[in-house]
């Protein structure tokens, strides 16, 4: 895992640095007075995407070293959930546009969660992106993310009206490399990693799903 993290982060740095350099050149070639229509807005979105990609690489690079020298309790901190959801929503903007998806956010009851910021972003991203990727072709995808207090946990719930999955003990959903719908690109690793991150922090994840109707994933974070 350490080798993978190092190799992936190292190999990703070069292309994103090139993209940032090209974007800088483009900004010089297009001074503000010449930017008509949506050009300025698009350039700003491109720069924001580059910045967030660099932040992700930074998280990836530091995750291995941090996990070796600190316990998971030390790595956890109070993270603003709404800010994480907002950033993930920006990352998923192209997918939302492509699918005409509708996302409803109601997380005001959970101002902060005590969790690793990097891991929380990964949990939210995986659950929201899956809800959109595995949408039902016969209807507009409607996804809601909400949070509530439940006993000693914060329960973060992501509900969709997508394809759903046939749940069975013989084919556990959160197993490594497990895939139920192969028409969409994926590796079968995301949900497995979400489960591991939550369990390592004393939480858990549950799912309710009906084939052809939709799914509800509930991630439990310790309060």
- Which quaternary structure do these chains form? single chain
Query: What helical percentage do the residues reach?
Result: 40-55%
Largest sheet: 5 strands, mixed
Question: What is the class of the largest domain in the CATH system?
Answer: Alpha Beta
Enzyme class: transferase
Catalytic activity: ATP + protein L-histidine = ADP + protein N-phospho-L-histidine
Protein name: histidine kinase
GO molecular function, one term: phosphorelay sensor kinase activity
Structure in words:
Residues 7-223 form the Histidine kinase domain. GO terms for molecular function: ATP binding; phosphorelay response regulator activity; phosphorelay sensor kinase activity; protein kinase activator activity. It catalyses: ATP + protein L-histidine = ADP + protein N-phospho-L-histidine. Helices cover 49% and strands 21% of the residues. With 223 residues, the protein is of the alpha+beta class. It has 2 domains: 2-69; 73-222, 2-Layer Sandwich (Heat Shock Protein 90). α1 (2-29) packs antiparallel against α2 (39-69), α4 packs across α6 (117-133) and α6 packs antiparallel against α7 (190-200). The longest helix is centred in the first third of the chain and has 31 residues, at 39-69. Residues 69-74 have low confidence and may be disordered.
């Amino acid at each position: 895992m350490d080798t993978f993290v190092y190799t992936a982060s190292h190999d990703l740095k070069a292309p994103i640095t090139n993209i940032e350099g090209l974007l800088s050149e483009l900004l010089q070639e297009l001074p503000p007075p010449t930017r008509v229509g949506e050009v300025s807005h698009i350039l700003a979105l491109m720069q924001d995407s580059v910045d967030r990609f660099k932040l992700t690489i930074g998280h990836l690079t530091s995750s291995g070293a941090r996990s070796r020298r600190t316990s998971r309790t030390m790595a956890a901190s109070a993270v603003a959930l709404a800010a994480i959801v907002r950033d993930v929503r920006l990352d998923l903007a192209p997918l939302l546009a492509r699918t005409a998806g509708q996302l409803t956010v109601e997380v005001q009851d959970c101002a902060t969660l005590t969790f690793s910021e990097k891991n929380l972003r990964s949990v939210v991203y995986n659950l929201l992106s899956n809800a959109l990727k595995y949408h039902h072709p016969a209807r507009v995808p409607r996804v809601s993310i909400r949070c509530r207090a439940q006993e000693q946990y914060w329960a973060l719930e992501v509900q969709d009206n997508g394809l759903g999955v046939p749940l069975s003990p013989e084919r556990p959903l959160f197993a490594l490399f497990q895939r139920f719908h192969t028409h969409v690109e994926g590796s079968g690793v995301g949900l497995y990693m979400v489960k591991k991150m939550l369990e390592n922090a004393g939480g858990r994840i549950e799912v309710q799903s009906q084939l052809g109707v939709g799914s509800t994933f509930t991630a439990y974070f310790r309060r």
